Amino acid sequence: MESKNDPIDVSDRIDNSGFGNFHRLLIALCGACLIVDGFDVQAMSYVAPTLVQAWNIDKASLGSVFGMALVGMFLGSVIFSVVADRVGRRPVLILGCVTVGAFTLWTAVATSVHELLVLRFITGLGLGAIIPNAIALATEYIPARMRIALSMAVTAQFILGALLGGLLSAVIIPVFGWRSVFIVGGLLPLVIAAIMYRWLPESARFLIVRKRNVRPVYQWLRQIDPNVPVLESRPLRVTDRVEKGTPIRLLFSEGRGVPTLLLWAISFLDLLVLYFMANWLPVLMSHAGHTAVVSVLAGTSLQAGGLVGAIALGLCYQRFGFAASLIPALLAGTVGVALIGMAAASVPAVMTTIFVAGAGIVGTQAMLAVIAANYYPTALRSTGIGWVSGIGRIGSIAGPVLGGFLLQLHWPLDRLFWTAALGAALMTALAIVLRACWRERVHGSSASLASMR
Predict the structure, then answer these.
(1) Residues 6+ apart with CB under 8 A from 431
(2) Residue 254 region, left (φ>0) first, then alpha (ψ -120 to 50), else beta?
(3) Could you read off the pLDDT of 230-275 as tens digits, one per residue?
(4) Is the per-residue pLDDT at 149 higher than 90?
(5) Within 10 Å of residue 79's Cβ, how many Cβ atoms?
(6) How many C-beta atoms surround the C-beta of residue 142 within 10 A?
(7) Given this model, what pLDDT does residue 84 score?
(8) 285 touches 344 (CB < 8 A)
(9) What average pLDDT does the segment 175-193 reach?
């Protein structure tokens, strides 16, 4: 029986609470941020063919534009995740959405490739701030019994955003032109930022760990569990502790070093393989004699597989743990990637293999952020997710370049995907090593080792 003077265990209240309107609003807002992120990351890909015709420029000149956005995302992920672990998830998340909205709208009135380079780089900075903090904030409020599955559902909204963006672009570009994509993509995050400014809570765990103003926490606890009296005269506590030192250095302290490096390596390879496929699938489909419509459907099949895979992985991870979910998904993804080139002549066969590859590879990318969110403690959570995501962005730059290099060496196009399959196979091996690391007790980490079984 709790007395009126006992501290309120906020971690326990959140972990064992019901699932109410407070959680629904939080997940909806964080998920909306991820939809914006997924939409905007693919925006240039959607408008590139029309833009090349409208400006009468060479396709290759847009390559640097794609690259600058990815560089911005890398820097945004690693910089603003560290900032968020110092100042809070809420302000950085809102700032990220405002940045994306403002500079995406500016992109709609761009008149030169040079202008696009600058605008897409700054937009990328804002995009990089969104994923780590949206996932961290959602994770820190979801009850323990459904944390993995719902965190994966939030993360999967990135894939949904990419899918919806492609469908919307196909409808509005022929009618309103390429600039309309950036108008929609700019207004949406600004609206979401305004809603978040009014309704989005800060992480209660963060405020307590960092000894900030905790008065709002009492109000949020009443919303989380209306049946439990919350007296502001009672102190608050959480199971996490303050981590002293530089956040990046702390990722390698107290037994976290090897798992951190393995998560980075898997994320790098995952986005390398993903962007390898996304960039060279249309070339492969054209080489196999298929129409432009079939090429677009191939990309859609990749993202659809990723969405289904992310949801399935979330459910499996929640019930069976890390090893029983990630490793089979990567094995399936490896087989799917390897078979794409051989199945290219048949539309049903190639769509099936692309779907399977997407379920394993794209689904894994969503799962990595959730693994990081549940592995790192509150004081390092945004930093941990941000660096996993940021290192992956380096892979997203390397993937298309690797494909182009192999083509210059006159590799047969239908065998090009065997190289990507090797990357997926290496990911599987690293995931097995990561699982072995978690067989031993990781001292000093607040990770739920049960979820890493």
Answers:
(1) 266, 323, 326, 327, 330
(2) left
(3) 677 778 887 766 666 577 888 998 888 999 999 999 999 999 999 8
(4) no
(5) 16
(6) 25
(7) 92
(8) yes
(9) 94
Q: Where are the strands (E) in 248-377, listed by range?
A: none
Q: What integer is the mean pLDDT of 145-164? A: 88
pLDDT tens profile 1-24? 455 667 888 888 888 888 989 999
Q: In which region does residue 88 sit, left (phi positive, over 0), alpha (psi from -120 to 50) or beta (all else)?
A: left
Closest alpha carbon to 84 in 380, 390, 392, 387: 380
Please tell me the predicted confidence (pLDDT) of residue 308.
92
Taking a C-beta distance cutoff of 8 angstroms, is the pair 403, 416 a contact? yes
H-type helices in 42-112, by residue range? 43-55, 63-87, 89-107
CA nearest to 158, candidates 316, 365, 360, 397 = 365
Other Cβ atoms within 10 Å of 448 Cβ, number: 15
| Token pair listed for 337 | 């990637």
Shortest CA distance to 127 belongs to which of 153, 165, 174? 165
Given a contact cutoff of 8 angstroms between Cβ atoms, the answer to whether 382 and 89 are in contact is yes
- From the DSSP assignment, how many helices (H) and strands (E) are in the chain? 18, 2
Distance, in Å, from the CA atom of 324 to the CA atom of 166, rounded to the nearest integer, reads 33
Question: Which tokens is 25 given?
Answer: 């609003």
Distance CA 86, CA 243 (A): 11
- DSSP class of 449: G
The secondary structure of residue 380, as a DSSP letter, is G
Residue 24, CA distances (Å) to 18, 153, 224, 383 in order: 11, 12, 11, 25
pTM equals 0.87
Distance of CA 61 to the CA centre of its chain: 28
Q: Which two tokens stand for residue 59?
A: 């396709």
% of the chain surpassing 90 pLDDT: 43
At 236, which helix (H) or strand (E)? strand 236-237
How high does pLDDT run on average in the chain? 86
Are 441 and 357 in contact, with CB atoms under 8 Å apart? no
Span 197-207, average pLDDT: 92
